[in-house]
Amino acid sequence: MSIVSLAPLLNVESVPRSIAFYRDHLGFQLMHEWEDQGRIRWASLETADVRLMLNEPHNCLSDERRERGSYEETVFYFTVEDVDSLHKQLKEAGLSVSNVSNEHYGMREFYLRDPDGYELGFGMPINISGI
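Now predict its structure.
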């Protein structure tokens, strides 16, 4: 047996809202969707080699996740080509992003939360000899 890919499935309050967030702010493309009673309840999104699925179970509430502190649950960490440009773009779009920082483990990174409180990290490798 050989695992060939990973696609996180996020349970969200509103699939259309999450599609808009990941598409408009992070460049994901909608690949597939499934509707139930006239409402999109599941979707698959992709960008480059990254795939993400969104699912809207009935009565999904994300308040508890939104209120958790950083690193208290799973963090979805994306490696990007230019972390500073992405940070600027997201900040100008009015999203609440952390400051960009150079970390001792060789990454320049920042964090934000999606509409359902999932923590997203964005980083790029840096030379840590000058830190």
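The two ends are 42 Å apart (CA to CA).
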